[in-house]
């Protein structure tokens, strides 16, 4: 299991961070920034180093998160105590919505930084209030949730229907360049294979080495 440190102190968004949040939000769906303003006013930013925890399973969790830069992973422990990676969150991007990762106001998952990260977060109720008042924000929030549900459905289908080599190919398409930035064990866990099996897949892709090569 990962030894995660708690995340560092938060501060209000500065100008560039505010613009980064708006840009990330608009990659999901069109958004009226004026109607989204309460969310921006409530948002805070923090820096995480590799292995810092954004979330611990069982802790109160009533916030939404944007990844301004860096890579995080959401994971849980299975019945044998093994770490199972559920998703990667690569900046600029959005962490899975709170409604999909919480139960009774507490996190059901861990989320840790795999690299140095900047993360912006805000209370979930602030977004809910904005969605009630603004059709634009309502449509945006619905688009975020729909994208997460589609991602989960695609992953469940891949785990059930695709051989490991195709799952690896799908991972590379979904997370371009990530393979070289994070530990192999996290990728293997996400793909539902062992690290040894993933290493074997990569070796098969490279093919037999010429005699005399190391």
What does this structure look like?
- The protein is α+β, with helices and mostly antiparallel strands.
- Helix content is 45%, strand content 24%.
- The protein contains eight helices and twelve strands.
- The strands form three sheets. Strands 1-4-11-6-7 form a five-stranded mixed β-sheet.
- Strand 6 and strand 7 form a beta hairpin.
- Helix 2 runs antiparallel to helix 4, helix 4 packs across helix 5 and helix 7 crosses helix 8.
- The protein is globular.
Determine the N-to-C terminus distance.
33 Å
**Biggest β-sheet: strands ordered side by side in the sheet:** 1-4-11-6-7
The amount of beta strand, in percent, is: 15-25%
Structural class of the helix and strand makeup? alpha+beta
What is the overall pLDDT average? 92
Shape: globular
Q: Please count the beta strands (DSSP E, at least 2 residues each).
A: 12
- Per DSSP, the total helix count is 8
What is the H/E order? EEHHEEEEEEHEEEEHHHHH
Helix fraction bin: 40-55%
What is the CA-based Rg, rounded?
19 Å
Spans of at least 5 consecutive residues whose pLDDT stays below 50 are none
Largest sheet: 5 strands, mixed
């Amino acid at each position: 299991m990962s030894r995660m440190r708690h995340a560092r102190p938060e501060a209000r968004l500065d100008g560039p961070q505010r613009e980064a949040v708006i840009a990330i939000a608009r990659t999901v769906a069109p958004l009226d920034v004026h109607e989204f303003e309460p969310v921006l006013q409530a948002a805070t930013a923090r820096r995480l180093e590799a292995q810092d925890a954004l979330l611990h399973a069982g802790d109160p969790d009533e916030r939404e998160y944007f990844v301004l830069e860096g890579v995080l992973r959401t994971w849980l422990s299975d019945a044998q105590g093994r770490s199972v990676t559920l998703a990667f969150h690569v900046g600029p991007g959005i962490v899975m919505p709170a409604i999909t990762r919480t139960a009774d106001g507490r996190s059901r998952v861990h989320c840790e930084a795999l690299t140095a990260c900047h993360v912006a977060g805000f209370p979930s109720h602030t977004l809910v209030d904005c969605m009630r008042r603004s059709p634009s924000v309502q449509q945006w929030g619905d688009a975020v949730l729909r994208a997460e549900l589609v991602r989960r459905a695609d992953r469940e289908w891949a785990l059930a229907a695709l051989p490991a080599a195709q799952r690896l190919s799908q991972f590379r398409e979904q997370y371009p360049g990530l393979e070289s930035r994070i530990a192999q064990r996290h990728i293997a866990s996400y793909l539902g294979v062992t690290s040894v099996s993933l290493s074997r897949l990569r070796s098969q892709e490279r093919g037999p080495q010429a005699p005399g090569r190391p």
